[in-house]
Amino acid sequence: FMLRAGLVTDDSVPEGHQGLHQALYGSSSQETEAAHRASEAVAGLPGKLDGTELLDIASWLEEVRSCTNYDEFRPAVGLFALYHEADAEAPSLVGLSRRVPADIARHQATGGARFVRIRLLSSEPRMWTRAALEERRR
Fold first, then answer.
1. In this predicted structure, what is the pLDDT of residue 2?
2. Burial letters 55-90, b for 16+ CB under 10 A, else e
3. Alpha-carbon span 138 to 59, nearest angstrom
C-alpha cells in the first residue's frame, strides 16, 4: 500500500522553510518534473523520489528490499522528510543522508515515523560531503 499525495505549493510553506521546501520539491513544476526524471535513474529505487510523493515507509522499504535483492540497502544520497501521520502539516524530522534507505529504516524503528517524502540526488555517496548536502537543503 503506497499513499500518494499531491504537490505541496509554496503558498502554504512558512517563509523560514522556503529553502527546504525548494530543496525537497523544487521551485517550479518544470524543475520538479526534471528532478523526478533524474530520480528514476538514481539507485533504481521504487517510487517517485523527487519529494512529491508521500510514501508509506514500511511498504516502500519492503519494495526496496524486493527490487534490490540485497540483504543490505544500497547507498543513495538525498534528503528526506519523515511524518508520523499522513495528514501532518509539517514533517517530524528532515534529514540528509548518503544512505537514505538505511537511515529511513533506522528512524522508522527508533522514532515511529510512518510516512516519508524523499528527494534522491545521487547513488554515488563518495561525491557528497555533509557541506554539499547542507547546501542542497537550504
1. 46
2. bbbeebbebbeeebeeeebbbbbbbbbbbeeeeeee
3. 29
Name the nearest CA neighbour of 77 among 46, 102, 55, 105. Answer: 102
Is the pLDDT at 42 greater than 60? The verdict is: no
* pLDDT for residue 83 is more than 80: yes
- The DSSP code for 129 is -
What Å distances lie between residue 59 and 38, 46, 51, 105, 123, CA to CA?
22, 10, 17, 11, 21
Return the number of other C-beta atoms located less than 10 Å from residue 54's C-beta: 22
Residue 60 and residue 47 in contact, taking contact as beta carbons nearer than 8 Å: yes
**Portion of the chain with pLDDT greater than 90, in percent:** 26
Give this prediction's pTM.
0.62
Q: Using CA atoms, how far apart are residues 89 and 22, in angstroms rounded to an integer?
A: 16
Say whether pLDDT at 13 is over 50. yes
Q: How far is CA 71 from the centre of its chain?
A: 21
Q: What is d(CA 110, CA 128) in angstroms, rounded to the nearest whole number?
A: 26
